Amino acid sequence: MQTTIRSAISFQGVGLHSGKPAKLTIHPASAEHGIWFKRNDEPFRDPLVPARWDAVETSPLCTHIVNRDGVAVSTIEHVMAALAGCGVHNALVEIDGPECPILDGSSAPFVRGILARGIRQLTAPVRVIEVLCPVSVHTANGWARLSPARGTEMSFHIDFADAAIGTQNKTLNLANGAFVRELCDSRTFCRNSDVEAMHAAGKALGGTLENAVVVDGDKVLSPGGLRHTDEAVRHKMLDALGDLALAGAPVLGHYEGHKAGHAMTNALLRELFANPDAYRLVTCDEATAARLPGAGVERHEVPAVA
């Protein structure tokens, strides 16, 4: 059955790119509501922004959604990944500004808060988007593909010049709480050589060594080092799950990303929905539901670092 959280939970911090204070509250919602964001600082325009693939506007370094009135919310990928990874299908996410708080740079604080409140079943069945045939998108540097699979599966490949990251590959079946155990605590990362350019472009103004992994050649500059030796590719998978959650329902398929990012994952969803023969919407049975992210996840499975 569809789910929501049992009671509201709030998070406060700063926006990674804006550097401005941000407060976000996740509220329970009824069946068939889906995930919506609400800008509390927009009294004169429509404050509701759908967390949906066709509301995404291309933006470097984050996922940015906009409604028809031009009201926007950015850097939604970590909270979206947390909701998807905990198996939450319906929620209203209130926010007091244009960007979600970055917190520690991962989804773990959101996951811990959601699971502390608990998950409540609703009275409508879960529907999933079943991928029926492969679809893909390509750029000069990378590609992304969705293909049929029994559950929600993901493979990712990255390759960076900095030896602290280098070449990393990971494949994961996201069923039975794997996101919570394996991915949720992996933080956003960047190369130290890119920081100045991002600041000049008005990005990463709220970034610190505490809310991002910063690497310089073979060195990790952030205190405490890495949470996982392959934390970078794990975070790319976290981002991809958050961006796939904008499909509006869990995706039953295998996502593959080769040097992929936010824009490419959104382009992949647009390609999928532009091909009606490539997918179908089906009502979940118990066996299928057990293979989805968040199924059976327990609060004690959140990594201790979170």
TrEMBL record:
<comment type="pathway">
    <text>Glycolipid biosynthesis; lipid IV(A) biosynthesis; lipid IV(A) from (3R)-3-hydroxytetradecanoyl-[acyl-carrier-protein] and UDP-N-acetyl-alpha-D-glucosamine: step 2/6.</text>
</comment>
<dbReference type="InterPro" id="IPR020568">
    <property type="entry name" value="Ribosomal_Su5_D2-typ_SF"/>
</dbReference>
<keyword id="KW-0378">Hydrolase</keyword>
<dbReference type="GO" id="GO:0103117">
    <property type="term" value="F:UDP-3-O-acyl-N-acetylglucosamine deacetylase activity"/>
</dbReference>
<dbReference type="InterPro" id="IPR004463">
    <property type="entry name" value="UDP-acyl_GlcNac_deAcase"/>
</dbReference>
<comment type="function">
    <text>Catalyzes the hydrolysis of UDP-3-O-myristoyl-N-acetylglucosamine to form UDP-3-O-myristoylglucosamine and acetate, the committed step in lipid A biosynthesis.</text>
</comment>
<keyword id="KW-0479">Metal-binding</keyword>
<dbReference type="Pfam" id="PF03331">
    <property type="entry name" value="LpxC"/>
</dbReference>
<feature type="binding site">
    <location>
        <position position="239"/>
    </location>
    <ligand>
        <name>Zn(2+)</name>
    </ligand>
</feature>
<keyword id="KW-0443">Lipid metabolism</keyword>
<comment type="similarity">
    <text>Belongs to the LpxC family.</text>
</comment>
<feature type="binding site">
    <location>
        <position position="78"/>
    </location>
    <ligand>
        <name>Zn(2+)</name>
    </ligand>
</feature>
<feature type="binding site">
    <location>
        <position position="235"/>
    </location>
    <ligand>
        <name>Zn(2+)</name>
    </ligand>
</feature>
<protein>
    <recommendedName>
        <fullName>UDP-3-O-acyl-N-acetylglucosamine deacetylase</fullName>
        <ecNumber>3.5.1.108</ecNumber>
    </recommendedName>
</protein>
<dbReference type="InterPro" id="IPR011334">
    <property type="entry name" value="UDP-acyl_GlcNac_deAcase_C"/>
</dbReference>
<keyword id="KW-0441">Lipid A biosynthesis</keyword>
<dbReference type="InterPro" id="IPR015870">
    <property type="entry name" value="UDP-acyl_N-AcGlcN_deAcase_N"/>
</dbReference>
<keyword id="KW-0862">Zinc</keyword>
<keyword id="KW-0444">Lipid biosynthesis</keyword>
<feature type="active site" description="Proton donor">
    <location>
        <position position="262"/>
    </location>
</feature>
